[in-house]
């Protein structure tokens, strides 16, 4: 047991909460050949040490790792996810797990046969720990040696409030094996049974005369569970199935998927520190016609650094939008410094942290990926979501529904995530409310027509199971802003339970569309709502939005649309270097080199021009046949940023066109020193040498 014997001290101190979960994987030996390529120590870890507690997802991820460094980091993350008290030096779960393995080897192993951890008793001891009571039946002539283990208090793991496990020496020899009432029956416990093998009742009566205590558990392992006609029910087999399924139920193994997804992206020190989170993603349209993706990430754990009574951290957000072929359409990055005093940290200690953000997006089908890193604790989390932005709204439709626990109304300074009209809906991914709450519903009506606005209506219905508990209808003409519909539903008259809210768009009584969302009302009198950090953005008239949309169109190869938006942005802020560069790149693609030159020229003589500005301007001069200017601007790029093959090859080409063959040869020769494999440049050098 390599890792158990190595010890289980933690490598870092990170504050947070992780649920302690006993995980089960009954009969979960690794399939033959599944891990044959693993180095021996990792094979031992997988097939012996954690074989009963690793989930199928975790196992699959582990087998897909390619380096020992990745495997070590995964094992660190594996134990960390099960640690009940992160932030302390000791991992109590791992310590207890290792103790159980050692106990099983010592108590259930034999000099011949499998080691103790591999026996049935060893498996269940490792999974469940010490039974509350053990009764042994040993040395009796008429029954085989047997043990009855009694457990209770594990209902939180989906097991019965109390249950027994029976192990016996089948046939009177060998290791104790698990007894199944349905598969074995009372007759299997009797040393000499000559009756009908299928007559469970007859066998039970004989066993009851010999050992009433053993007979009580022979038809059912669950106390109080009745047996009709003297035959075992399936309840005991269901118990075994539930034990088998517990690893997936009790361990939040999503971290393993994230580990595999981001191991090549996040820094090494982050990769074992995935923290669980939940998220919301909604798409809403602004009155201007721009469509925004709104999203939130709610962290289940929020770590800060304490120094002299002040608490701080720094969050870094990296977002990427990819198309259906995996090509990056848009990327964004931002930093979020967080500073708190003693009073503030007390107020949020038992509250989740939630980050609200938004960005504009052009029509299409996409995959959104957002990576959020806590740079103080070196933890990370992420969200992945498919997002669709319709090309046009030619027919009426409802947006997705947004359920919130509060709505901030009134005039908002700038744009904010989850803002609908003049209100910002404060929402949580779990959609849980208490009776004192109001449920705030936000949504939009898109693609509407004048006739629909005049004659249409919206019906709201709330169901609990099949029972309709609320129904009301409002005319569309009653709403001042159909792009910002907010409804308020008090919940005091409801009872705790799970509900569905249906919103149906009607026209002349006919159904056009229905959207629905579930929510839950809890018995708890009040809920700790999250501490929300919501970013604020410029009004939609800001040219930054045109710039972002223009870049998105450019990355998709839709150059006419990119040109429209980037010209708008550059004309609004001609002094913005990034706007000018993006527009010039479109002009270059469209072969309008004169315009590209005019847009970029003002930035050539800045203190340190952007590399891409100089490179694009150099290519523009070459395309226009202005090779002397191309030489000057490329040399300027070399002066500020050093040499590379692109600059040297372009410089050589410009000198060659100017007839300066000596300088062209020098530039191309230097390029070959950096990359000797450039065949085209080799050919040019050989050609020039022949001319000499």
Structure description:
This protein is an alpha+beta fold. It has three domains: 2-248, no CATH class; 275-534, Immunoglobulin-like, CATH 2.60.40.2550; 543-691, Serine Threonine Protein Phosphatase 5, Tetratricopeptide repeat, CATH 1.25.40.10. It has 22 helices and 26 strands. The strands form seven sheets. Strands 7, 8, 9, 11 and 12 form a five-stranded antiparallel beta sheet that branches. It has a five-stranded mixed beta sheet with strand order 18-25-24-21-22. The chain has a four-stranded antiparallel beta sheet with strand order 1-2-3-4, covered by helices on one side. Strand 8 (310-323) and strand 9 (328-340) form a beta hairpin. Mean pLDDT is 89; it is low at 6-33.
Summary of the model, kept short:
The model is unreliable at 6-33 (pLDDT under 50). The protein folds into 3 domains: 2-248, no CATH class; 275-534, Sandwich (Immunoglobulin-like); 543-691, Alpha Horseshoe (Serine Threonine Protein Phosphatase 5, Tetratricopeptide repeat).
What number of structural domains do the residues give?
A: 3
Highest-level CATH class of the largest domain: Mainly Beta
Task: Note the gap between the termini.
Answer: 73 Å
Q: Give the helix proportion (percent range).
A: 25-40%
Coarse shape = globular
């Amino acid at each position: 047991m390599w890792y158990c014997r190595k010890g289980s001290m933690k490598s870092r101190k990170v504050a947070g909460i992780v649920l302690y979960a006993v995980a089960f994987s009954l009969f979960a030996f690794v399939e033959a050949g599944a891990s044959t390529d693993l180095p021996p120590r990792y094979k031992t870890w997988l097939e012996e040490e954690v074989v009963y507690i690793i989930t199928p997802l975790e196992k699959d991820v582990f087998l897909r790792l390619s380096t020992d460094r990745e495997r070590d980091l995964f094992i660190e993350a594996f134990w960390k996810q099960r640690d009940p008290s992160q932030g302390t030096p000791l991992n109590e779960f791992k310590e207890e797990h290792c103790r159980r393995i050692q106990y099983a080897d010592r108590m259930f192993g034999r000099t011949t046969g499998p080691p103790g951890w591999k026996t049935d008793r060893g498996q269940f001891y490792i999974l469940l720990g010490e039974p509350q009571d053990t009764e042994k039946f040993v040395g009796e002539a008429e029954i085989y040696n047997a043990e009855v283990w009694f457990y209770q208090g594990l209902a939180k793991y989906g097991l019965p409030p109390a249950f027994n496990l029976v192990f016996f020496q089948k046939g009177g020899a060998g290791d104790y094996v698990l007894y199944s009432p349905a598969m074995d029956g009372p007759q299997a416990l009797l040393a000499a049974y000559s009756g009908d093998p299928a007559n469970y009742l007859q066998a039970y009566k004989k066993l009851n005369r010999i050992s009433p205590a053993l007979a009580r558990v022979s038809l059912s392992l669950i106390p109080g569970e009745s047996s009709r006609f003297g035959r075992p029910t399936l309840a005991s087999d269901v118990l075994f199935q539930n034990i088998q399924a517990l690893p997936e139920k009790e361990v939040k193994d999503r971290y393993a998927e994230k580990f595999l997804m981001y191991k090549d992206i996040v820094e090494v020190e982050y990769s074992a520190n995935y923290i669980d989170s939940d998220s919301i993603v909604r798409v809403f349209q602004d009155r201007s016609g721009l469509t925004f993706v709104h999203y939130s990430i709610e962290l289940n754990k929020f770590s800060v650094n304490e120094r002299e009574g002040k608490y701080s951290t720094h969050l870094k957000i990296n977002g990427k939008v990819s198309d259906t072929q995996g090509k990056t359409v848009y990327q964004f990055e931002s930093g979020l410094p967080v500073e708190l005093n003693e009073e503030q940290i007390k107020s949020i200690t038992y509250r989740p942290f939630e980050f609200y953000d938004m960005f504009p997006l052009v029509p299409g089908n996409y995959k959104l990926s957002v990576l959020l890193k806590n740079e103080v604790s070196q933890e990370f989390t992420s969200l992945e979501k498919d997002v669709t932005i319709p090309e046009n709204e030619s027919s009426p439709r409802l947006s997705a529904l947004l359920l919130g626990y509060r709505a901030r109304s009134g005039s908002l300074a700038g744009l904010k995530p989850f803002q609908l009209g003049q209100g910002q809906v404060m929402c949580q991914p779990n959609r849980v409310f208490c009776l004192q709450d109001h449920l705030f519903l936000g949504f939009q009506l898109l693609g509407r027509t004048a006739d629909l606005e005049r004659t249409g209506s919206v019906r709201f219905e709330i169901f609990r199971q099949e029972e309709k508990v609320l129904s009301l209808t409002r005319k569309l003409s009653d709403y001042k802003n159909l792009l910002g519909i907010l409804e308020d539903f008090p919940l005091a008259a409801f009872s705790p339970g799970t509900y569905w809210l249906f919103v149906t768009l009607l026209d002349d009584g006919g159904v056009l569309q229905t959207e629905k969302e579930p929510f839950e009302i809890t018995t708890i009198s009040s809920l700790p709502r999250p501490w929300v950090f919501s970013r604020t953005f410029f009004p939609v008239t800001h040219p930054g939005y045109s710039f972002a949309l223009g870049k998105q169109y450019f990355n998709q190869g839709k150059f006419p649309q990119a040109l429209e938006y980037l010209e708008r942005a550059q004309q609004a802020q001609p002094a913005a270097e990034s706007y000018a560069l993006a527009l010039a790149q479109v002009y270059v693609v469209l072969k309008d080199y004169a315009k590209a030159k005019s847009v970029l020229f003002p930035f050539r003589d800045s203190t340190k021009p952007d590399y891409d500005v100089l490179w694009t301007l150099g290519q523009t001069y070459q395309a226009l046949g202005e090779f002397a200017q191309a030489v000057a601007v490329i040399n300027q790029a070399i002066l500020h940023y050093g040499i590379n093959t692109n600059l040297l090859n372009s410089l050589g080409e410009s000198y060659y066109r100017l007839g300066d063959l000596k300088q062209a040869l020098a530039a191309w020769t230097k390029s070959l020193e950096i990359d000797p494999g450039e065949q085209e440049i080799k050919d040019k050098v050989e050609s020039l040498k022949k001319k000499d």
